[in-house]
Amino acid sequence: MRLLLIKTVQLCWQVAMNRLMSMYLKIIFENRCKSYMDILVMCILIWSYNVNNFWFCQQQLEGHTYQINCLLVNQDENIIFSSGDDKKIIIWKNDQQWEVSQSIQEHNSSVYGLSLNDSQNKLISCGFDLYILVFQCSEQNSNWNLIQKIQTIAGGYRLCFISNNQFTFQPINQDVMEVYSKDQKGEEYSKSQGIKIKRGFDQNCFFPQQYIKQKQLLINKNGSCINVVKVLESGQLMVEQCIEFETNYIFGAANDNGDYLVTWDYVTKDLQLRQYQE
């Protein structure tokens, strides 16, 4: 990966890219909002811009009672999933205005990671309570119902669907990333593989796993390392590259086709832009 550095002055807590790549960075700086969705501790701020391209806060979503840890938007961009330290997963739907559609409290501790499958009908979550929860969307009333509870060896900050039948899970402070696959009956997920990866002490959940379908690559931050994992046609996974930092406070994201990876870390305070090369 080719590297470009941009020095920043303020702290950067999250990095994202828009789909058209017309704006390479949408960044949430400390006390400064420049993104479509922003988190203000317990609130979600929805931002939009007017004809003069000035950003304004369109709506403030209140429903969590403690810090929000994760935001997830469906493919149609009309449903938001949020989770936090209040043990809740809140589902918001947009009908003129964003409103709470469902509030789920099945975890016993903070909820750190969320992911939707390709079909958008299954949701998985992980947190500090040593469980991965699998939810399915009802065709009758569109409610999300718990269908499976998987016990894990440790809590987890990150998990991600890589297909309808397979997802990955990163236990906190472990040097193995776990892969879960559907059983032969196609009903439940079970652990099918463990991938040895580099790790370090991890203290935050704000760099979620990201699967790049076009390149069959999984971006997995673990401690002070970013592991780039290749998903083979056989369904097996292998580490293709490991990018090491001097801190576990790393935040970043790749664009949709995986051509670029942007990161910011607490030590260098640089925005680092890496370009993928086959």
TrEMBL record:
GO cellular component, one term: cytosolic [4Fe-4S] assembly targeting complex
GO biological process: iron-sulfur cluster assembly
InterPro entries on file: WD40_rpt
WD repeat spans: 61-93
Keyword annotations of the record: WD repeat
PANTHER family from the UniProt entry: CYTOSOLIC IRON-SULFUR PROTEIN ASSEMBLY PROTEIN CIAO1-RELATED, WD40 PROTEIN CIAO1
Protein name in UniProt: Uncharacterized protein
